[in-house]
TrEMBL record:
KW Protein biosynthesis (keyword) present: yes
Keyword Electron transport among UniProt keywords: no
UniProt-listed PROSITE patterns: ADH_SHORT
Protein name, UniProt field: Elongation factor P 5-aminopentanone reductase
Name of one Pfam family that matches: adh_short
Transmembrane segments: none
GO MF terms, alphabetically ordered: translation elongation factor activity
Protein family per UniProt: Belongs to the short-chain dehydrogenases/reductases (SDR) family.
Keywords: Elongation factor, Protein biosynthesis
Superkingdom, natural source: Bacteria
Species assigned in the record: Paenibacillus gansuensis
Length: 242
């Protein structure tokens, strides 16, 4: 079994890669520019004795994705499990958002997911087995002030997930989304200590999630015995929203 994790060079993506490697799965770590970080994650995965490949591509480019697919096919590493983790956030009042910023967030979060899924799902359909897991956000479910663009993009991820799950269910391919709350990664690295404390006080469990906790949920959804779970948006958020 092979898993492809987009944006797998750091944060949640890196933890997902290590989680799958730890149970003996081959891992493909996609990245855009973080070459050294991707190699560092790869070295950690290799310690489990699995096959690991790092590959760079702009997911918004169908041509680059085609070359990526050809390389994976050559190595016998077409994914049975696709984790669409690559994404970008944006924080500002909507009145300050430029058209270019809107297009960037939508392109990375939605177009990249669409093209990557479209590229790799035929392999899953042909073997009548596959798992597609999209990393969303709690804000795609509830919305967040000053994160309208990001919330909109992740809401689109959730809708994409639900619709595609119905389309692929007869082919033995499940499609689900994981929508984390606040996770202790670089994405909240801009917060100072006072802001971190205030945010954690809003969360019933009183802390941020660790990337490894999100990775464990992704792994569970990818299991063969999770085949009856599809079209779901599952939010590990510490009780922040219910």
């Amino acid at each position: 079994m092979t898993v492809l994790i987009t944006g797998g060079s750091r944060g949640i993506g890196a933890s997902i890669a290590k989680r799958f490697a730890s149970v003996g799965m081959n891992v493909v770590i996609h990245y855009l520019q973080s070459h050294e970080s991707a190699n560092e994650v790869a070295r950690s995965c290799l310690e489990y004795g699995v096959r690991v490949l790092t590959i760079s591509a702009d997911l918004r480019s169908k041509e680059q994705l085609q070359r990526m697919k050809e390389k994976l096919d050559t190595h016998g590493l077409l994914p049975d499990i696709l984790v669409n983790n690559a994404g970008t956030a944006h924080y500002s009042m909507l009145s300050d958002v430029t058209e270019e910023e809107w297009d960037e967030v939508m392109s990375i979060n939605l177009k990249g997911m669409f093209l990557c899924t479209q590229m790799f799902m035929p392999h899953m359909i042909s073997q009548r087995y596959g798992r597609i897991i999209n990393v969303s956000s709690i804000w795609g479910m509830s919305g967040a002030s000053c994160e309208v663009v990001y919330s909109t993009a992740k809401g689109g991820v959730n809708a994409f997930t639900k619709a595609l799950a119905k389309e692929l269910a007869p082919s033995g391919v499940t499609v689900n989304a994981v929508a984390p709350g606040a996770v202790d990664t670089e994405m909240i690295g801009h917060l100072n200590m006072e802001e971190r404390d205030a945010l954690q006080n809003e969360i019933p469990v009183g802390r941020f999630a660790q990337p490894e906790e999100i990775a464990s949920l992704v792994y569970f959804i990818a299991l063969p015995e999770s085949g009856y779970i599809t079209g779901q948006v599952i939010s590990p958020n510490g009780g922040w929203i219910t």
